[in-house]
Design a protein that fits this description.
It is a single chain. With about 150 residues, this protein is an alpha+beta fold. Helix 1 packs across helix 2, helix 2 packs parallel to helix 4 and helix 3 packs antiparallel against helix 4. It has a single domain, classed as Sufe protein. Chain: A (Alpha-Beta Complex), CATH 3.90.1010.10. It has a four-stranded mixed β-sheet with strand order 3-2-1-4, with helices on one face. A hairpin with a 2-residue loop joins strand 2 and strand 3. The longest helix has 18 residues.
Amino acid sequence: MSDLRDLYQEVILDHYKRPKNFRKIEGPARRVDGHNPLCGDRLTVYAQVEDGVVKDVSFEGSGCAISTASASLMTESLKGKTAQEAEQLFHKFHDLVTGDPEGIPDTEGLGKLEVFAGVREFPARVKCASLAWHTVRAALLGEDQTVSTE
């Protein structure tokens, strides 16, 4: 189990140090800001949706390793998904990070996102991991007010 945790930490640190899709989308895109007052994470999520499909998604901002890695992996996971598939993935990810720390997490269909299963053991970090997800959800739903984890 220690080797698996080490691998998870390595993936999270890699996405923190070299985040994917860390940029502003030029042109027509939905834009929503997110803020986690507890940790100080701040980000802006951009989502370009065409014909109900997430064509592009990106983010900018600053945050802790968990927050940045979550946003990075989220953008990779959502590209090419329909709005409905993105909503399902949001709920699956949310269940992963907020589930019973003693239970066995359902990671089916999450791919690399399963690296966040350990977050459930640290309730203060759940908001860090879920900030980008709540923010992109607001963007996909067409909301435009700042998302806060408080």
